[in-house]
Write the structure tokens for this entry.
Amino acid sequence: MRHHPVTMALHWLLALMILGALAVGLYMTGLPFSPTRLRLYNWHKWAGVTILALSALRLLWRLTHRPPAELPMAAWQRRAAHHVHAALYLVFFAVPLAGWAYSSAAGFPVVLFGVLPLPDLVTPDRVLSESLKPLHRWLAYALATLVVLHVAAALKHHFVDRDGLLLRMMPARRGGAPTVQPIHR
Amino acid sequence: MSTRTLSALTALFLALAGAGAPLALAQPRPAQLQAAGSEVAFTTRQMGVPVEGRFGSFSAQVVLDPRKPESGSVRMAIDTASARFGSAELDAEVPKPTWLHAAGFPQATFQSTRIQAAGPGRFEVVGKLGIKGVSRDIVVPVQLAPAGTQHVATGTFTIKRLDFKVGDGEWADTSMLANEVVVRFKLVLAGLPPL
């Protein structure tokens, strides 16, 4: 049973954006003060705000659409998967929000795509910005760790247990029917 | 009349003349800039993001009779090393030669050449702004309002950073960093004659 195409689209789009934002985030902080650094910081913030918005959409979608029945697996694995998924959703929101608040506190309002000024989450404050910076960083590390756990478990299911788990998140080769039942119908 | 008496009289006359001189010149005394409440701030735009900085150290000599502004003058000096932002990174960056070059040009200055009335409590201060060794003529609109026994002078004007070679080289691209810098000031002055 595959996931709904919308579920897949959100999953893979966010996977790409989150990996991109993580990579840019790790790289940009080591750059000297330069136009390149400034450009990457802004792209990173735009990506973060987009991830935040898409995650809200994704959560709404998840809450209104039941995923296909789970594959048979040990109870502890099921529990672990649920916990990791819940924690992932938590950091999908926490990491961009902490980053946004850090940017606000540091006196850099976020202007989405360079045109849409977003409100400051906190008022500019040097002391606050210096505690929000490590918060954003450690939450991002937590996100990266959860992604590693998530990917490792998915690969283990697919290639060790050979239960075809990955195919649930892959588009069908030949017009497979969508398999999600909307909750209210 | 002895020579001694004559010289004593001369001395007395000179002393009287000297004491009377400040009365004869109807020039008001300079106002005193009050650090508390005064500020000089500026806003730049980086990829559309407004970034505000402020100077922590500046001085002003303001001689102004609001009823006779033409006779007044304003001189300001701003310590270029005192620019502060929300982030320590910018604090460390802006005094560098690319930007304000605080080591080579420790002060930015403004010297008025002409002050004219522009409405009730409003003045146009024309003068020369000197930043990083470049001098440009600017017109600064100033609003003056009484505040208790003091006066508050406020105003906003826009300069182009590249006119003063601020952020040249790799930063010359104005789509990344806007050319316009909006300067905002608020000077609390004691000892100005009433409006």
Remarks:
- The interface with chain A takes residues 46-52, 85-89, 93, 170-171, 173, 176-177 of chain B (CB under 8 Å).
